Amino acid sequence: ELVAADLVERAGDRVRARVAILPVGIPRSAPHSSGLVICDRHDAPATSELVCWPDDSSQHLANAIPHHRVARWLDLGCGSAYAPLARPGVAGEITGVELNPRAVAYSRLGATLSGIAHLEIVHGDLAVAQPAAALVTCNAPMPTLATDPDDAVMWRHTDDDLFARLVAVIPARVAPGGVAVVHAALSAIALEALPGERRVVAYTPSGAVPGFGVLWWRPDAPARLAITHRALTPERPHLDARDGESC
């Protein structure tokens, strides 16, 4: 079964894992609070479709999602679908949108192996039409990290207008009264120009370039911008929903 699912490959009497399978879950999100994420191995060749393994940004976003249950959740640029697989109990219907076809295949397989039937993965970019959702999330790509123009890895490159397109599409995807939760390099987003209520918590040290944080954004709420910083601690090593409520 593992060979048939392309999870392992056989060479004679030896087998080798083709992908990494990682258990994920946020205990406080129970019930139904864990899943299996499929991504490329750490030693996988650097190709344009490399599906990156989860990192601390994945955990920041998953933790930052409010704990109350909503009817529909839309995850933009879902990658391996870490957030929906870690927090499947947040919504009755979850849709992930992803441009990388390999990531689409991995995230669909992760949902199947996790037994999460209410997670649908759609192949497409930000412009793919979707019904409005009470919760919209995005772990935004980093600003271009590649110093070599021939670097093939997709996630190390961000086209110049991606962040402008992201913040333009989010208000149309958030249902009335809903919220968008975005992890990003904060300097890449024109926070002052966004409509509605914006609560921002940075967690990287002052002066770090780029500086990262989480934006809780209610596009149809009265205009308000609050930006704070929280130092990470061993007790609270990632941002969480409490940070968005307190700023």
The number of strands is: 12
Number of domains: 1
Rough outline: globular
The H/E string reads EEEEHEHEHEEHEEEEH
In DSSP terms (H or I, runs of 4 or more residues), the helix count works out at 5
CATH homologous superfamily classification: Vaccinia Virus protein VP39
Largest sheet: 8 strands, mixed
Please tell me how large the radius of gyration is.
Answer: 18 Å
Q: What is the CATH domain class?
A: Alpha Beta
- Provide the CATH architecture: 3-Layer(aba) Sandwich
Specify the helix fraction band. 10-25%
CATH topology: Rossmann fold
Structural class: alpha/beta
The low-pLDDT segments are: 28-32
Task: Report strand %.
Answer: 25-35%
The average pLDDT is: 90
Short description:
The chain is built from five helices and twelve strands.
Structure description:
A hairpin with a 2-residue loop joins β1 (8-11) and β2 (14-17). The chain has five helices and twelve strands. The strands form three sheets. An eight-stranded mixed β-sheet has the order 7-6-5-8-9-11-10-12. A two-stranded antiparallel ribbon has the order 1-2. 19% of the residues lie in helices and 32% in strands. The chain is globular. The chain has one domain (8-246): Rossmann fold, CATH 3.40.50.150.
